[in-house]
Amino acid sequence: MVGRHWLFRVSVGANAFVLFYFALYSSTTTFLPTTMPMDQPPSRRSKNEITLKSSEKLNSKGESSGLPKDFSLKVSEIQQPPLQEQSNEPFLVLPVSPAQTHEEENQNQVKEAAADSVLDIQGKVSQSQLFETQQDDGSTVLKIGIRESPASREIAHLDFETEDVNCGENGGNMKKPDHHSNIFEGLKSFPCDDYTPATHFAQRGPFWVLYNYIKPRKKFKCDESITYTTHGDFTFLDNLIPLVERWEGPVSLSLYAPGTDFLDSLKRINYLRQCVNGSSLVKDYVTFHLFFDYKHIPRAQIPPDPSAIYVDCNEFTPEDIKFGEGLSTYKKKNKLPYPVNVARNVAREMSTTHYILPSDIELFPNPNLIPDFLEMIRRNDTPELQRPNPNKIYVLPIFEVEATVTGLPQDKSELVYMLRNKSAILFHKYVCANCHRIPKSNEWIDASVTSGLNVFHVGKRHKPYHHWEPIFIGTKRDPFYDERLTWEGRSDKMTQGYILCVLNYEFHILDNAFLVHRPGIKRTVITPGKSPIVARQNAIISKLILPELKQLFGTKSGCYV
């Protein structure tokens, strides 16, 4: 009896001590996320640091009373109203590393801090969206608003005070992320898979391909830009600088370089990368893939890393830097056909971005196409963009301009002006008018010019556009080109067009985007039926390839090769 009475007293005393301890501890401690990086005292943090908003209580000095003073969180002078004056909407703390002490800190360090914070809460939140709000003091705040998830009633906001943020070498203030960067690297603008290119040599049918033979300085994640995928041989490389100047984004370029054309290609690549105005753009954006027939492998030793070769720009002779179709080449001497679809597919496969623009190296897009297109995709706010069909591509109308034109049109307004005064025409108007004419082409020209980018019209590859060869922004998942077809045989893209039609692809024609061919209007009418090479390729398409496509993809009324 005495033993049980003693045990009862001990139990009551212990319980009382525990209750007293928890009551005392809870009155002096505020819990912060364990991932909060507090590695610098408040005196060394930037005015523009990313600040904390939470349902937790901070004292009037902005300190969490349960933390040592050395680790207190400084509330920025440019701040939201005091916590008690804000709405009762709950917030989830997004702790991020404060600004570093070095003055040369650039925007990338801020991005990394934000990305780390977002990753810390990925298990709790979903459906993020980047948006801007205007503060009472006139400053702009970029936010990630993350909608309430079923597992949590917390809503996360990440605020960037955008004034006086050092943007590195380019200077200026960080108002919003550019089209090549996602400041919240843990989140993607749309579902896609990143691809890290590696230099490797591999066989592809009768060819050796040097994939990613010369890589650019800049790297892109799958949702950060659009890759212009193109092809040619060294005689066309004079188009590269004007292309990259207007595109200002990643370019995947496949060059056919058999025999001695290989060294001729390397000379011109090094010249363009090192010795001309615009070389920095080539080094930043262009990936070069070289390929050749195994029967025409270069006799010279192939450098494992040509970008590391020292280049003396004074050593180039006029012969080294000539371009144009009139040049004598190994390909011409040996009467080799140009494997155009091999070149197209290699460039496409090596793209690091989800969206690609497969096009010709002599076609130049209007400036600002990349940010305008990605913004349109992010908005997704029109009935055309919200159509449920997942198979859709985004068509760019194509035009030609007279050889005497000194400057290409920078936007649709300038293009329409040139169309009115006859210095510009629809592409191949005098060669194959129906090959590239878009549906409602006259309405497209007459339509009012608006800001940004939108879908003007949704068309199909049906009559009278059943032989349409559009150039479009698509994805790496779109049908590829048949590599049995050559450029000399013509109709090299028609089989892909048939597949697009059978798979019910929608052709979304963009309203303020376009391509312009390098100056010079073609007026020679081609009569393909008289060429034995063309006749032979037409027979391959009709008797061999088309039956295969029907077996693989089926048939559909209104679809033709």
Task: Note down, in words, how this protein is organized.
The protein is α/β, with parallel strands linked by helices. 26% of the residues lie in helices and 16% in strands. The protein has 13 helices and 17 strands. The protein has helices spanning 2-28, 107-120, 240-247, 261-274, 279-285, 330-333, 340-349, 369-379, 412-420, 433-436, 441-446, 494-502, 532-553; strands at residues 128-134, 140-146, 156-161, 200-204, 207-214, 226-232, 251-256, 286-293, 355-358, 363-365, 392-395, 398-401, 424-426, 455-459, 472-475, 506-510, 515-517. The strands form three sheets. It has a ten-stranded mixed β-sheet. A four-stranded mixed β-sheet has the order 10-17-12-13. A hairpin with a 5-residue loop joins strand 1 (128-134) and strand 2. Helix 12 packs parallel to helix 13. The radius of gyration is 30 Å and the shape is globular. Residues 24-107, 110-133 and 140-177 have low confidence and may be disordered.
